[in-house]
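User: Quick sanity check before I run a bigger batch. Here is a single chain. Can you write out its predicted 3D structure?
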Amino acid sequence: MRPVTLEQRTYYNPVKPTIDYIQTRFDEYNERFFSSSLPPIPIRLSHAKGFLGKVTFTRKRKGLFARYQNTDFVLRINVRIDLPQEVVDDTILHEMIHYYIAVNQWNDTSTHGELFRHEMARINREGNRHITISHRLSDAEQAQARIHKGRVVAVVTFADGRTGVKIVPKQIRHILAWDKQARRAFGCQLSAISRQPSAVNFQLPLQGVGGLSAITWYYTDDEYFAKYPSSTALRIYLIDDPQSLPLANAHRLSLADGKVRLILNPDNNLRW
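Assistant: Done. Predicted structure follows.
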């Protein structure tokens, strides 16, 4: 990847970390900065708002008079936003410091107290890192960040071979209503077909479409579909090359008996 230098720091194209990526960085930083003293920890990907990363654990004690011990650790990294690689790596290191303190059963003066600040300063110095207490995205980072938004996509196939897409609001009632409305309309009338996403007002009559062949539903966070407006209008955007639609990793939606069922794709961590 080609770096772009901003504010005397080197940024790369946004990345969406995977569990394998996080595990590789964890192992590397564990050896380099913690003398491989950190035990393995389960890693989870999160789409929640409000944090870039966190280490969660529970406090338990064995026996009435025993001391409480930190246990059941989990490292959670947020993948809702694609961030520059350096920010992702600093986030992993930030959480590893929390883990280092908690797994050793040390009590810090606060969440980011003296122990945390000592380790943060050491790693920043030794590794030329930029770990901070709390991370607010700079203008440069925010410009590079990509927020992953889940979208409901209907791929409409016509009997004459043409294919179009429609983005529908993710509320269940809208999905069911649009599917029912579209199936009724095809073979009768359709309000409009738009050929270009940017030309919403460009309309063609349904004549010559030849009826409906299929409607296939997906749930995806691929930014390809951001250019299409989301609405309940019976308007479909024709696609020149249906095979190019980036839906290989999307979740499927199954509509039956007035219900919508999400069929998860194991290669996609997007949740409803």
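The CA atoms of residues 154 and 217 lie 5 Å apart.

User: Great, the batch can go ahead then.
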